[in-house]
Each structure stands twice: as C-alpha cells, then as structure tokens.
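User: Show me an example of a complex going from sequences to structure tokens.

Assistant: Sure. Here are the input components:
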Amino acid sequence: MSGLVSMAQQFSGLPMKSLLGAPLKAATDANGMMARTQTQFMLSTCFDKKGDDLEPIMVSFNITRSIVKQDGTAATPPTATVKFNLPLLTLIPLNSLAVDDVKIHFEMEVKSSTSKDNESSNEQETAAKADITAKYNAGLFSVEVHGSVSHNSKSTSSQKEHYEASNQAKYEVDVHAGQLPLPTGVTTIINAFTKNIDPIMLKDDSATPPPAGG
Amino acid sequence: MSVKIQINCPDCHSPIFMESMLLLAGQSFKCSNPECRTAISLSLSESEKVAQAFNKFEHIRENAVNQARQVS
C-alpha cells in the first residue's frame, strides 16, 4: 500500500482560504464600489445642492383626467389636463445593483491505484533421448535392446507491477449581479415622495407651484 | 435600454407602469385601475433632463454588470 497516494495529504495542500475567500472578497469589493457609485449618482443627478441642503430635482408631468357630468356622460371638453411635479428620484429604479449571488464550485478528484502482478511460471519439460542398441546372441536366443533417452528443461518467470495516479481539479466561480433591496433610508425618502404625489394645480404657465412641503 | 418605472396614481394611488423610452418619447400612461381614467405623461420640456438621468443610470448599471463579470 505504500504506492498509494495519501488522500488527506492531497487535500491538505489545497489553498482553500484563497479558493473560497478570493471570489467572496472580490464580490464584496465590487458591491462596495457599486454602492458608492449609486449613492454618488443619486446625490448628483437627483438632487440640487443648495448651500448645505440637498433639494430634490422635480420633473413636471401632465396629468389628464376625465370630466364626467352628474348623469355620467362626458363633459365638454371631456378631459382636463393639469401639471404636477414629481421628484426625479422616484422615476429612477434605484434598487441597489449588486452582486447578489456567488457560487463557488470546487471539485477535486484524486485517483490512485496500484497493482502488482506476479506471474511466475515454471515449465519443466524433461525429455531424455538416447538411442541405445544392444544385441546379444546366445545360441538360439538373441536379445536386442533398443532404448531412447532425451532431456529438455525450460523455466519462465515474469513479474508485472502497475501504478496509476491521476489528479483532477475543477474550479468554477459563478457570479450573478442583481438588485438588492434599497437601504431603509433611501426607501423612506422615496416613500415620502411617492406618497405625496399629489397634483399641484397651476393656474397658468406663469404660475409658480407652492413651496415644497406646502 | 428601456427602464421600467412604477409610480402611484395621483388620483387613486393604484400603480401606473411606465417605460423610460416611451415616457421620453412623450407617450402617456394610464392608471392600472380600470375605473380611474387618469393618464400621465412627461412634459416635453423635461424630457432632456430625464433622459440624462436615465443615461447616467444605464451607465452605472453597465458598470455593475462589468464588475460582476470581473469577479467571475
């Protein structure tokens, strides 16, 4: 068994800390960068800085409503259009863009096998061959002896040793960027704006809307 | 790329679903409440301001996607 690779030894040498930690750190860094970018975007694009205060940039919308008489028929004109202002912030889908899913797939396979084949064959073939001829004549009797002796010897021995080891590693990092829930503070601001989307009636083009919050 | 926007109807507070490209093109969007016949549209004078904001937003969104790709 000395030829086998120690599995524990194979895995203990892996830099698990960097394999797992590096993608997560990179994702965290990316999220931090994206959060800063979005905050800067929100403050610079959706707000006007006036002194120490930030004022939301308002966008003018037209709202068209149907005018219906008491008997249910359409009045003349059938619709009325008024203007209302909406904070630009409420139009931008500011759901925090961030890396929301990091999957690390690490697959490692260590194969180690050893085999030892001993093949030993001893083949012995003995064949002795000798031709002997003897003849003896004794009166009426005659004896003749024929003999044959041969000898052959063969010996075969083989030994096979087989060792096979393979390491296979697969490392995959899947990262998905999606939208995370907004921070509570931003949600509160947007909700406050959204709930107060009430038309601000303007008498004519020269009219100015009432001050914000009024 | 068009961005989907949802705001509440000023009349009935039901959602009004809009798309940035169509909004910038001047299209009006009706309230999702069938009984409310309110429709809203962006004032033409504001389209440039809103378009700039959407462009900036699209830019940071592309950056976010690139960041995610770099991580992987």
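The lines above are the inputs; the final block is the predicted structure for all two components together. The longest strand of chain A covers residues 96-121.
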